[in-house]
Amino acid sequence: KDGGARVMYWFRTDLRLHDSPALQAALDLKPQAFFPLWCWDPNYIYKHRVGINRFRFLLESMSALSSSLHSLNPLSQLLVVRGDPCDLLPELFKRWGITHLAFERDPNDEYVRQRDDQARKDAKANGVEVLDGYGHHLYDIREVLKAHNNEPTLTLGALQSAVSKFGDPAKPIDAPKSIPSPLLKDDVASPPQDIKDLLPKLLKSLEGLPEYSKKKGPEYDLNSHELGGQRSTGESGKVTCYDSLVGPDASESIKSTFSVPTLESLGMDAKAARVSVPSLIPGGEAEGLKRLERVIKDTKYIATFSKPKTSPCQDTSEASTTLLSPYLKFGCVSVRKFWWDAVEASKQYKGAGKTSPPENIQGQLLFREMYSVAEAGVGETYKRVHANPISRYIDWYLPTVYDSKGKEIIPRPAGDAASEARYAAFVEARTGFPFIDAAVKQLKTTGWIHHLARHSLASFLTRGQCWISWERGAEFFDEHLIDWDPASNPGNWMWLSCSAFFHQYYRVYGLATFPQKYDPSGSLIRKYCPELKDFPDKHIYAPHTAPLEVQRKAKCEIGKDYPAPILDEKKEKEHCIARMKVAYAKGWRGDAKEVLEGKAQEI
Ligand code: FAD
């Protein structure tokens, strides 16, 4: 085709330039033209609850990437388009004379797998060659799955044994020093001098594209359970946020600009949503690499990292763990670079107390692989209880309900009023248990909480006290976590609810005793539940146990100025353990049939 490769590089989970094998393979072709594309996919937007913190991080990361591309070539930037990639890509192949489509493989989530298969087929049909490298994980998840006989990995040992066949993860590769321009064929001989002249030509080439928003819009029912717009669980998610991405202005935006939208242009108001402004976790490759460098510099911290000893009681700005998860989620930092930098830092440290998997940094990164292989092995049903071959079936209150075919999700019934009230209290941070409420507020405000705070929330909501399905908890995290991941989020919720991966259901996190071990003075509570800030240390984790005169002195009467506990911690714990015993004895797995047939017995 005119003698030169014309590459479309489709950015998705890899908002970076360093250590990107697919990008490197694309650039090795020495292409005549190079189109860095980002596609707002309505399926993604509607199928997931995306809270404002994640949107902000994503937009910041896209802007940073666009600037990096521009600094490598003044005629380049991220070309942001809106629409279903399965419709849009074939059109762009033709209009831009594409010869190669390059992208980083995204191994998790059934929709994504199907979308990428379709993109491959469309590429083939248009004579476009696909270059897909892997880079989102340490290992190629598909290959690890094969090495594990296509079975989901349910323990770290199983994962380690499967990856042992592949040796160490690949070493990271450097970022490119230059990239070619996104030139239409007619412009190759004499390219425009300025990007301001180039973009209108590219925009003109999109004229007549179908208006995806109108075509796709009616398929999405915002009231249905999975989409969840109306059931948004916090101040941050309003339906309009999702709507405006593919709303009536979408086709207009394609015509007018390729630029990264702002939160405001998407109808989101960070201040009104009461999220932390400015962000404690700024998006982008440079920010991620800066954070990585900072943690790696402390060789003792890296070499002796022991996850269970890190504190869940610190605010996001002082995180006791690396806080690199948002950067890994959007691919701003390469996981292989993280791995190898940590290996080097550990080597340099000559002191005592070096740690190893599972508790060290490498162990953490391997957990991420374990969940990804598990997700890839289970497929579509991984994110729910029903028909999920690895999730033990437990008769939670507020389960998700499926239709009689066991496939399509039907709107959930209201559930029993008491459980709905518990769930509402949880997501609105008014359970009366200060550590739980503070962690929920921290999550909603900053988009991140420590792993053990996630443990505390997940245990409390499911088999610890509330007996609510892990799916409901996972869906709350879906919306608020910046680092939300289709494999790690459901996987960890299954772990914490003792539905899969972990089974010691009699080990329940104390709502006061557990966090108290890490921070007796309750600083997280004082920050996020300021009405409790004048309580003495002795009562900060359980203010309802303080005598009335102590409450009055702290200017906060429990039940009036701060909620009384919504349940009896000890009684509910015993109740839940008894129910878990029965559920384990029944040994149900992945099948809600009994419930649908009305056979599940109240215990
Ligand atoms: P560090 O302790 O510094 O670990 C380094 C990296 O290792 C992390 O960035 C992360 O990529 C990986 N990692 C560490 N622990 C885990 C783990 N248990 N599972 C998977 N990866 C891990 N992590 C996500 O990335 N996305 C999620 O959606 C997610 N949902 C969770 C839900 C629940 C209920 C629980 C209990 C945990 C969840 N985690 C999730 C795992 C873990 O809490 C976060 O990865 C971690 O807290 C991120 O902070 P960090 O980067 O400082 O972690």
Helices and strands in order:
Layout lengths: L5 E5 L10 H8 L4 E8 L1 H6 L4 H21 L6 E4 L2 H12 L3 E5 L5 H16 L3 E5 L7 H7 L8 H8 L31 H10 L7 H5 L22 H8 L3 H7 L28 H13 L1 H5 L21 H5 L5 H14 L12 H18 L38 H11 L6 H13 L4 H14 L5 H11 L7 H9 L16 H6 L4 H6 L8 H4 L7 H6 L15 H18 L6 H4 L7
Parallel strand pairs: 1-2, 1-4, 2-3, 4-5
Helix pairs in contact: 4-5, 6-16, 7-16, 18-19, 20-21
Give a short synopsis of this structure.
Its cofactor is FAD. The chain is 44% helix and 4% strand.
Structural notes for this entry:
Keywords: FAD, Flavoprotein, Lyase. The chain has 27 helices and 5 strands. With about 600 residues, it is mainly alpha-helical. Strand 4, helix 5 and strand 5 form a beta-alpha-beta unit. Helix 6 (about 140-145) crosses helix 16 (about 360-380), helix 18 (about 435-445) crosses helix 19 and helix 20 (about 470-480) packs antiparallel against helix 21. About 50% of the residues are buried. Bound molecules: flavin-adenine dinucleotide (FAD). Flavin-adenine dinucleotide binds near residues 484, 492 and 496.
Q: What keyword list fits this structure?
A:
single chain, 603 residues, mainly alpha, five-stranded parallel beta sheet, 27 helices, 5 strands, globular, disordered C terminus, binds flavin-adenine dinucleotide, FAD binding, deoxyribodipyrimidine photo-lyase activity, flavoprotein
